[in-house]
Amino acid sequence: MNVIKAIYDFLVGDMIILVGVIITVLILALINSLQILAPLRVVAGTLLIIAVLGTLLATLNRETKAKR
Amino acid sequence: MQWEVATTAFLASAVEFVEAFTIVLVVGVTINWRSSLTGAFAAAATLALIIATLGVALVQFVPIDILRLTVGVLLVLFGLKWLKKAILRYSGIKALHDEEAIFEETMAELRARGETVSPQIHPFGVALSYKAVLLEGLEVAFIVITFGSSAASNVCSQTCGINSAAIGAAVAGLLVILAGALVRAPLTQVPENTLKFVVGIMLTTFGTFWAGEGLGVVWPFADASLIGLAVLYLLASFVLVTWLKQRKQQRLAYAQANSHTVAVGQQGEAKP
Q1: How much is the pLDDT for B36?
Q2: Chain B partners of A57 at a C-beta cutoff of 8 Å?
Q3: Which of B236, B242, B261, B262 sits between 20 and 30 A of A32, alpha carbons compared?
Q4: In terms of residue numbers, what domain contains B10?
């Protein structure tokens, strides 16, 4: 358990960032693999950028609330 | 040689080397240089072994697309973590990372343990130096291997990418050691937050680009879109810093107004 925590702290150490990035990758993987979602492939790059910035905003928002 | 890879590896490694060097310096000054350097060299040897085995395994056995996706995601995680810290420090919500404070804190800790300068090898000093160099060095190794192996292109193979990143990291290490030896003091002059901010932007940029490629995204203007991504993240970061500064000021104003109301209320109660 300590090893997993050490790896988690080393790589990210922030649950919001981890969950945000995992959800983004899963959604983009679905868009890339499912034929029904093929029209969304044109905006996949934009979605990725928005998701990354959204994750950053969410974690910063959490930090400011935690400091109250 | 890939200059953009070498530069990013240089900047990212410089941050880690500064942190590791501060601890090595503290151990050298408070315990002795023999213990400090023994720990540092032992950690460097361990790191060389890790890089040699992991680096070779990655290059030989993992397909480039899977590697790009994995590394892209890891770089985004790493980059966002650094960017978050740098933004919080710029906005004043978190204190600036101060190498001088780390130096003083570690010195006080060692003094409290009764450590004094003696010529013999001291196990605690070796362990402290080893741990610091190994942990910070692991981050450097991680950046060199992942960054270098994913940077393969038509003109540069995976090995060439790792070599470029390794050169960047090695130059950073040498410069930090040289600067430290010259000034003989913790490297407080290095603006660490600025460095972390720039590296955070670069890691997030490369991470987004490679993760996107691994997920089938076709970037407009190919590699040139890296510049656009970096500019976009830079602008977004400045907006976020401004927003956080405003939130902090609002919170301060609210706290002041509250304390004023409480003080007035107490005065009113005190009157007969």
Answers
A1: 81
A2: 240
A3: B236
A4: 3-258
